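Table S2 (continued). Query chain:
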Amino acid sequence: MYATAAQVQQSVTVNPAPVAQNISFTALTAQTLAQSPVTVSATASSGLAVTFTTTTPTVCTAGGTNGATIALFAAGTGTVNANQAGNAGYTAATAVTRSFTVTKAGQTITFPALRTKLRAQSPVTVAPTASSGLVVTFTTRTPTICSASGTKIALIRFGICTVVANQGGNSVYNPASAVSRSFLVL
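Corresponding output:
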């Protein structure tokens, strides 16, 4: 027969299997270049921090804490990925991708009405502004009556002077609709 075996003791560590997690990342709304930078947010069901990257570096890039600050560079479609790599207790989450439209911003010109002017008041200073803060340029539709140079309108002779304010836009803003103002020159 057999003799009683000696008792042996061993420790075994049992790690629970990592828990699956998911990311909640709501749809991103369209943005204009003037709104840059924008901040994105997402949450992981694990409570672990979510990080962001972009796949469209000519349109937007991720930076700041966890990549949540999205800088906008050009009109187009921007794509942002939300990621959570997991840890000992959680498996990596499936990345969630969101795309959004980036466009140039619109702008408008504010140009107050001009009153009747005497030729002796020449040159007249005009001061329209663009909502973008960009410089407004001027032309006249009546060059025999008045001419434009900078913010000054030279009054040449009697008649109706028509001044046109323009702002052609830039890499962030679309051109503004031109605004015309007419006044009598005496």
